[in-house]
Amino acid sequence: MAVTESARATGSVLAALDEMDLRALSRALSDHLRERQVTFGTADDGETESFVVDPVPRLIGRDEWDALAAGLAQRAEALDRFVADVYGERRIVSAGLVPWSTIASAEFYEPRLVELPPAPVRWITIAGLDLVRDGEGPFVVLEDNVRTPSGIAYAVAAREALSGYLSVPEGIRVRSLEPAYALLGEALRGAAAPDAGEQPVIVVLTDGPSNSAFYEHSAIARRLGLPLVAIGELSVRAKRLYARTDGRLLAVDVVYRRTNEDCLFDAAGARTTLADVLLGPLEAQTLACVNAFGTGVADDKLVHAYVEEMVRFYLGEEPLLASVPTHDPSQPGVLAMVLERLGELVIKPRSGHGGVGVVVGPRADEDALATVSQQLTATPERFVAQETIRLSRQPTVCGDELEPRHVDLRPFTFATGENIQVFPGGLTRVALERGSLVVNSSQNGGAKDTWVLA
Fold first, then answer.
1. How far apart are CA 390 and CA 387, in angstroms?
2. Is the dihedral of CA 83, 86, 89, 92 positive or negative?
3. I need a surface site. Which of 163, 229, 295, 453 has the fewest CB within 10 A?
4. CB neighbours (10 Å) of residue 55?
């Protein structure tokens, strides 16, 4: 039913687009986003780049979405319990379900965090999971993003921009994205320690315009009425964090960290710039950070291979969402298999992001395969190998025509206390180059508005 429903609605949308000048529509949408300074990333000359939104929305049926949302909430809960376990008793390691070497070698595992008190409420308040559809099959999870997932404000910006140029056809109802900011604000307030009161002081911590997602930082701060601060505007007194903003000095209860710096301690165990300011209040439990430091261990692309076991172990349930099969080349016998199947697999750096360093075997030339073969042989522990997924495609405006382009989907979960909510839709990312499987905005990708049918 869900496929029929979304297919019928997509047909109505395409019929409406057939009456429009696609090139002019695309240009108008770009002008709208540029005028409102919706940017992502920086160009080679240092200037910010406008966020690109394709005029053709992606539609998901209501029944399919409801099932997907349940799977997302389940996965986010299991990941939160895993991070707590990693910095606690490590029961999943003792049970033999996740190798300790996988955790210890993860780039964002911070062993010194075992000396700190746990997160006041949750380690993972906000999760953004990257989903792909294997051809016409079900959604599967390609990657987990629980450190500083971006895209919430961009999903809303895409909806607001498109709504001015493309009306929802008669007979179709689309779930609103208005709850997105409300859910985010509720989750941020819920992350505060219980003694912070009903109205904790929350600040958004940013790197400033040098951060590729600075538009999102500003948009969230503006929509939620939160101070947007840089690290230089923070100070500590009597183990409390203070932020200077608008001539005032505020005692801070929650930091929504959106900086590129993700750790309290570097690889050598030395304190980072963030630790110089945040570590004392975190140790004193007068401050909460969203997401908590240390959650990056669950972002690791090799840890991703074990999330389905986490669901079974921590929740006693069968996973509602499957992961893309992932192989560890550092394990006995696996490297030989990976090298033999190099032209069939996707090779990724464990700590990579934005599609950088990814080699898609079926699309790679002999030189690229030879290079990655040498890298794998020399340092197999630095890579993962994933089965190649036939990413589904969606109609996309290319000049005056519609052409199919590969897409993924990044929905978001928000945890408040014991509850995890998923706002309907998320950010569909689209590869604008013909045949490309890399959909990241930093790799010539764009976005689509995601319509969840109501």
1. 10
2. positive
3. 163
4. 24
Helix axes 214-224, 179-190, angle to 10 degrees: 80
List the CATH number of the domain containing 335: 3.30.1490.270
- Whether 300 and 331 share a structural domain: no
Please check whether residue 58 is in contact with residue 448, taking contact to mean a CB–CB distance below 8 angstroms: yes
Given 367, 387, 407, which residue is the final one in a domain? 387
184-228 pLDDT, tens digit each: 999 999 999 888 888 999 999 999 999 999 999 999 999 999 999
Q: For 40-74, write each residue's pLDDT tens digit.
A: 976 555 567 889 999 999 999 999 999 999 999 99
CA separation for the pair 127, 304 (Å, rounded): 14
Residues 231, 374: one domain? no
Residues 12 and 160 placed together within one structural domain of the fold: yes
What is the Cα–Cα distance from 191 to 196, expressed in whole angstroms? 10
Same domain, 38 and 176: yes
Domain count, the chain: 2
Q: How far is C-alpha 315 from the chain's CA centre?
A: 23
Q: Which domain holds residue 400?
A: 2-321+389-452
Amino acid residing at 402: L
Residues 310, 409 within the same domain? yes
Model confidence band, residue 1 (pLDDT cutoffs 50, 70, 90): very low
Joined tokens for residue 383: 């890579």
